[in-house]
Amino acid sequence: MSRTDAILKRLAQLHPKLIDLSLERMMPLLEAMGRPQDNLPPVIHVAGTNGKGSTIAYLRAFLEAAGKSVHVYNSPHLVRFNERIRLAGKLVGTRRLNQVLERVEAVNAGRPITFFEVTTVAALVLYAETAADYLLLETGMGGTYDTTNVVAQPLGVIITPVALDHQGFLGTTIAEIAANKAGILKRGSQAVIGLQQDAAHAVIERAAHRLGIRPIWQGEDFHGTAQDGRLVYQDEDGLLDLPPPALIGAHQFDNAALAIAATRHFGLPVDAAALAQGLRQVAWPARMMALHGRLRDMLGPGGELWLDGGHNEHGATALARVIAEMNQTRPAPLVLIMGMMNTRHPADFLKPFAGQVQQIFTLTVPGEPNAHKAESIAGMARAAGFAASAKRSILSALQAAAAIPHARVLICGSLYLAGDVLARNHTPPD
């Protein structure tokens, strides 16, 4: 076990629950660490159900194309914990990560605190101690009681589309979940809101009104559409004709437009040339990512291997749409290799793929005690009308997929599975 893993294991044992949404444990620790949340570069805080990571990836690409240095906070990581903390453009080094984790651990002195809370404190300390022009801060879950919701006055707030997810923690309806996400809105901060269902729109609008905020809304105040292979963006300041985003899928035009709107509405120093460069260079691993290397080679000539960490019905809908678009160019039998955590419902995830899938091979996500068993996922898939069978490993699943000539194979259902696949393929994020 590495030193980092040993520290993280100790921190994970400080609280009996992995998730216990509250700021009460975290605020005293932040006070003891010198209130790093008050000494950050300008913060853009991002909440929502889907598209948070992609929207942040676009913002980072735009700002870096404009010559700015950017901190980023994302979760979860795929292969290494370091991926969660990007300091002025580079993933935090292991030695520095270990040092700050141990500093925070010592100050906390064994008091109960969740893993995400204590590691977020460590990240905020690093961001406060490292010079950068901006911090892009992604919520972990929800908004109101999310551990990132400690910045009193962010430069701007973004709420991406809200959908049903984490109902056991955030609420059972779209309106309840939206109210939780809207908790990151702050009086005096600007806000940009992504495409929303009516129930979410109403809740977010009321929350903004109470705080005296006038957000701009995707689909009303700004639009981004695909036209002749280009991204055409329009708001009250005019029209931009831009290259298509490097990330794959029609939903990425929406995510890119949301990031462009935030760039303009928040007054970030990014011109049209930097927007175009950012769209060409943006990268976000495990989001409809083409895999090459040893795992892809198992499929033989003519096979395709794709990886996506989407894990709810909203994300699956976007994936199914991408597959449909691919079939217009090159029809191919679709094979899903999927594993899921037991907080998700495999049948709901599979609904958008009805009529598209030839075969499903299911896996138990390696190393995750809270994962659905492969046999359970396969049974639920068969009950939903899909041909499905359980496999013991990603290797055995790929061997089975290789028997289907010229298949388009999509590994999906869990970011934890995606991380395991990237590690086995020897292609971890930078």
- CATH topology (fold) name of the largest domain: UDP-N-acetylmuramoyl-L-alanine:D-glutamate ligase
CATH class of the largest domain: Alpha Beta
Could you say which structural class the secondary elements and strand pairing correspond to?
alpha/beta
- Low-confidence stretches at least 5 residues in length (pLDDT < 50)? none
Write the CATH homologous superfamily of the largest domain: Mur-like, catalytic domain
Largest sheet: 8 strands, mixed
Global geometry: globular
Structural account:
- 39% of the residues lie in helices and 17% in strands.
- It is α/β, with parallel strands linked by helices and 430 residues long.
- The protein folds into two domains: 3-281, Mur-like, catalytic domain (UDP-N-acetylmuramoyl-L-alanine:D-glutamate ligase, 3-Layer(aba) Sandwich), CATH 3.40.1190.10; 289-424, Protein-Tyrosine Phosphatase, Chain A (Alpha-Beta Complex), CATH 3.90.190.20.
- It has an eight-stranded mixed beta sheet with strand order 4-3-2-5-1-6-7-8, with helices on both faces.
- Strand 7 (190-193), helix 8 and strand 8 (216-217) form a beta-alpha-beta unit.
- The longest helix is centred in the C-terminal third of the chain and has 17 residues, at 313-329.
- It is globular.
- The two termini are 21 Å apart.
- The model has no long low-confidence stretch (mean pLDDT 94).
